[in-house]
């Protein structure tokens, strides 16, 4: 943890970065297996809440729920590190359902990798307060092969174009392509729900432990087409 304390001195407002940097070491690549943790699901009114990773099983449960509850028009993602090696079909499946039903999306706590992609494809996108002391943060990175980890440029660019289009170009391709500067699979763009001292809500990290987080200009959430939500954690 010594390197964390050393490099956080230059970014005093980012008290949440210490946890993010530790977590990012174990974040799965878009097409790289992540830990098999339990995914919990529940329905509250017109909102479907998914707590945990995005998997083929969670996708099927989501589809069963929207079939049996046609009033669902919101999807909330809670503390998700992304997907497993099935990330491709899982992400496309969620995106297809979001597009078909014009779903609004919400994120609470960590929303990394494929979770961030799914969130950013919502027709309205809102970051909510976390359900614990951790910050609500999105993390985006390039798609990589799960064989040799090479960057899949064509797939990444296709996803970035879709994300930019859904944000009505508020999240520009120039902004999103900062992720290509990453030195490894842990690096990418981080978007925080709340930042103190008037700093940017958007940051880049190379993925190298010796490197610091750096602000990407002075972007607010609204600049990026994302809403700031303050509703309490659903019980």
Question: If you had to describe this structure to a student in words, what would you say it looks like?
Answer:
There is one protein chain. The protein is α/β, with parallel strands linked by helices and 235 residues long. The chain has a single domain (2-228), classed as 2-enoyl-CoA Hydratase, Chain A, domain 1 (Alpha-Beta Complex). The chain has helices at 2-8, 17-24, 56-68, 87-101, 114-120, 153-166, 173-176; strands spanning 40-44, 47-51, 74-80, 104-112, 125-128, 137-140, 188-192, 202-205, 214-215, 227-228. Strands 1, 2, 3, 4, 5, 6, 7, 8, 9 and 10 form a 10-stranded mixed sheet that branches. Helix 4 runs parallel beside helix 5 (114-120). It is globular and about 45 Å long. The termini are far apart.
Provide keyphrases for this structure.
single chain; 235 residues; alpha/beta; 2-enoyl-CoA Hydratase, Chain A, domain 1; ten-stranded mixed beta sheet; 7 helices; 29% helix; 20% strand; disordered N terminus
Provide the fold topology.
Elements: H1 2-8, H2 17-24, E1 40-44, E2 47-51, H3 56-68, E3 74-80, H4 87-101, E4 104-112, H5 114-120, E5 125-128, E6 137-140, H6 153-166, H7 173-176, E7 188-192, E8 202-205, E9 214-215, E10 227-228
Parallel strand pairs: 2-3, 3-4, 4-5, 4-6, 5-10
Antiparallel strand pairs: 1-2, 6-7, 7-8, 8-9
